[in-house]
Amino acid sequence: MHKVLAISIIASMIAVGGAQAQSCHEGKTISAGKLTIATGNPAYYPWVLDDAPESGQGFEAAVAYALAGKMGFMQEDVIWTRTSFDQAIQPGAKDFDLNMQQFSITAQRDKVVDFSAPYYTAPMAVLVRGGDGLTADMATLKRLKWGVVATTTALPVVMEKIAPESPPLIYDDNVNVVEAMKAGQIDAALFDLPTALYLGAVVLEGGQVLGQFTADETKNPDHFGALMTEGNPLKECVDAALTEMKADGSLAAIEAQWLQEATGVPLIQ
Amino acid sequence: MVNRRQAYEAQQRRRSLSIAGISTALVLAAVVVLVPLAPGWPAVRASFFDASVFAETFPTLLQAFMIDVMIFAWSVPLILGLGLAIALARGARAPALFPLRIFGAVYVDVFRGVPVILTIYLIGFGIPGLGLPRPWNSPYIWGTVALVLTYSAYVAEVLRSGIESVHASQRNAAICLGLSERDTMRYVVLPQAIRRVVPANMNMLVALQKDVALLSFIGPVEILRQAGIYKSLLANFTPYLVAAVIFLMVTVPATRYADYLLNRDRDARS
Hints:
A: five-stranded mixed sheet, 38% helix, elongated, B: mainly alpha
């Protein structure tokens, strides 16, 4: 009797839990029963493989599907769309529920849009070309000519932490930074570590990741969060799902799968 | 004394002024009343018209604008010089100089035909990529080269139209006086041609002043890029509005001056 009761209680708890997961997002997404997730155009390795998030290959694509699953969406209920940074922060109605493209959570951005709980904390890393004779210390870094992508939070880090002798040059995207490095216009660039590793290994011939800053050394470690419209009621469901993913280790497993080579880079003293 | 004709004209003028005033006021009122009624207005106002962001970013943006002014200042003499050279090359009559004419025509076709931003990208990243040592691979140098190439093509066409607008009788008269072809161009044709195209070239300079901002795409942190940095840090578009206001502070007087020159030129001819 007790056993039956216990089983039925557990069963009903599971049912209620399932029902809650089902109902949490109900009426809160832009198209009923579907979760629309935006990424960059193009989306870069290792965040999305081959610019094809539908495959679930790559860290952010994998997190997106795991997150959707935790929130009670089937795999086919996930719709992908593309936005620029500006489209993500401009006022007005958005055509996505979540936007995942390495958005760093900052207090100032948080006034305009909502961020989910962080799904990844990226150390900042220094990419150089032909780094022979360069050492990973501040005195060396100060002498280099820096390049940074404008829409990242790398610029404040360069200005405040490194404070180079000549002002950095600023570019629109990763490709332009790499191009400027090939043209010898800049010596070094600051990226989040996985991006720096990819650019150094695949895109930039002779590229090398000179070193990384530890998260605690940086005043604002770069927490990536999914971006949502300000006051989006979906936020609580996303945060609950992310908390669950952290607790059950599935987020760490995804990180280990897609960002595993992000270790073994020397720390900058 | 005011005669009846003058009184009538004064009345007509007052009438049209008041109609213009009322219609302008109505349009303004409609904009001021209707736009805030839009459901997204509070969000748009917060994103584009944030007074505190405006005040915070204005000084830095004004400072960044000086880089635009600098690039503009050293581009202008290069553009005028090269533009004149190309215009003269296109106008060369001697058969032996035919290759020069062809070169002029191709040059103008290419650099008027390619969007400025593409020229800036290709030259700003392409030529330094050949392995030039510092400081000769600077984006400032090659960005300026791209602007000069593009704008001298336009200016050359404007100058050429000016040269062709000088009546043939002027040349004939100069030849009768015994001037060489070179002196005819230098003392008779060019002074008149250049004066005629000053207003059109003023227009080109206003356009150039704005296009300097495109150099931000290859690295320099001038006003457009600085505004973009603020936009990204503050997640707010007001810095772009600040940049637009700063541009207008310079380009509106410049365009007014170009209009004034145009009108004076037209009045002098009529």
